[in-house]
Amino acid sequence: MDADLDTLATALYVRVDDLLKSYPERVPWRPKVGIEPKITDAELVTLSVMAALLGFTSEARWLRFARAQLRSLFPYLPQQPGYNKRLRNLAATMGWLVTMLARDTTLWTDDAWLADSTPVECGRSRETAKRSDLAGFAEYGYCASHSRYFWGLRLHLLCTVGGLPVGFALTGAKADERHTLLHMIGDDPRLAGHTHQTLIADKNYFGAECPGRCWRHSVRGTRVGRRRVWYRWRGRDGGGMRPGRRIRMRARRRGRVGRCVRVGAGRG
Question: Is 118 in contact with 155 (CB distance < 8 Å)?
Answer without folding.
Answer: yes
